[in-house]
Amino acid sequence: TYVVTEPCIRCRYTDCVEVCPVDCFHAGPRSLVIDPAVCIDCAVCVPECPVEAIYPEDELPADQEEFIEINARLAQQWPVITRHEPPPNDADEWAQIKNKREWLD
Ligand code: SF4
Ligand code: F3S
User: Fold this and answer.
1) CATH number corresponding to 2-79
2) Cα of 30 to ligand 2 centre, how many Å?
């Protein structure tokens, strides 16, 4: 499965959602997650993300492994998103910030 990681938080560009053939992105207020039970590993979402937040599960950076559990859990709570939405006004500023896990949900 593919996993949305920390760079998505407070960037939430949503460019990824429109290309997913199986609609497995779920949207929270400040980031998105992928439902691992639905993702078919097609990889087409990866180049769409301006902040390179999406990785295959087996190629996650070591400090992002927590996001496997986060994606699985929050995909059960957040609604599916299939259409692009405008990102937050300050998304480009948050794209420069590395440690932002506290704003996950
Ligand atoms: Fe959707 Fe494919 Fe990305 Fe999985 S890898 S989230 S199926 S676009
Ligand atoms: Fe997040 Fe990147 Fe999609 S910032 S919403 S994973 S395009």
Assistant:
1) 3.30.70.20
2) 10
